[in-house]
Design brief:
Blueprint lengths: L2 H14 L2 E2 L8 E2 L43 E3 L2 E3 L9 E9 L20 E3 L7 E7 L5 E8 L9 E4 H7 L6 E10 L3 E2 L8 E9 L2 H15 L6 E6 L2 E9 L2 H15 L4 E5 L1
Parallel strand pairs: 5-9, 6-8
Antiparallel strand pairs: 1-2, 3-4, 5-10, 6-9, 7-8, 7-10, 10-11, 12-14, 12-15, 13-14
Length: 274
């Protein structure tokens, strides 16, 4: 094989190694970051990224109609993916990566333009659009993102985050990080809510293991100096959801939401049941 042919095969192999940002019908390969860097080739930050990325608010879960096209079964790199078409409980731990300037402004699977500074993410099968809490298993920090894209199509990665989401979780320089991904139902916190108690609550976390949920509940009571009657662990299928409340008003809940963020560096999600 001559040098030009070899280079052509090598470039093709790199292209096929990635995941896609385009709708399934028009899959365009996205190459994952290299093992030792934060981005691949030119897929890094802009020359002058915004200075206030830590102040970018998390995505706010709200009920939206599912995209007509982005939730159909599709094939990427020889694997068939069947997206969820209803909101269901989903919890998975694995490796998250991020994508940036190389795709900024290009269409996502939802048809929206990718904004690397928004709190969004790409996932192979979660509904589009939908919402998820992503928690760093290394630092405990968490963010809430809106899923509006497909990918990553890599056996060792479970979600692709926007530049800002990866920044807030602290793994921009590494290019990837270990995370827990939990789906969020905009009608009631983490997906699949069956609790019948009405009121306003703050959802601080959801765990597959009850002992982890109880440990977080105990931390909340200790660090926030609140009565045990204001905390609860709700069992919902295989999820143990940790909540504060009920609150008399949105303002009261938002006050405690700020305290949770300040003292535990966690993002609580406002949950309303009526």
């Amino acid at each position: 094989m001559n040098t030009k042919s070899f280079l052509g095969v090598a470039v093709l192999a790199l292209v096929l190694a990635g995941c896609a940002t385009a709708p399934p019908a028009k899959q365009a390969a996205r190459t994952p970051p290299p093992a030792k860097g934060g981005y691949y080739l030119d897929d890094g930050p802009e020359a002058n990224p915004p200075a206030n990325l830590d102040a970018v608010p998390d995505a706010v879960p709200r009920k939206e109609p599912l995209n007509r096209f982005a939730n159909r079964a599709y094939v990427a790199l020889g694997t068939t993916y069947t997206p969820q078409t209803t909101y269901q409980p989903y919890v998975e731990e694995g490796v998250a990566s991020w994508y940036g300037r190389r795709f900024n402004g290009k269409k996502t699977a939802s048809g929206e333009r990718y904004d690397m500074y928004a709190m969004t993410a790409a996932h192979p099968t979660l509904p589009i659009p939908s919402y998820a809490r992503v928690t760093s298993l290394d630092t405990g920090k968490s963010v809430v993102v809106r899923v509006n894209d497909r990918g990553p199509f890599h056996s060792r990665r479970i979600i692709d985050l926007s530049y800002t989401a990866a920044h807030k979780l602290g793994f921009l320089a590494r290019g990837s990080g270990r995370v827990r991904v939990e789906s969020i139902d905009p009608d009631g916190g983490d997906a699949g809510g069956k609790d019948s108690e009405d009121g306003i609550y703050l959802q601080v976390g959801a765990f597959s293991r009850a002992d982890n949920a109880r440990a977080l509940r105990d931390r909340l009571e200790r660090l926030l100096d609140i009565d045990a009657s204001q905390t609860r662990v709700v069992l919902d299928g295989r999820l143990h959801r940790v909540q504060l409340g009920p609150y008399a008003s949105d303002d009261a809940a938002q006050t405690d939401r700020a305290r949770v963020r300040e003292r535990l560096d966690l993002n609580a999600v406002l949950v309303k049941r009526d």
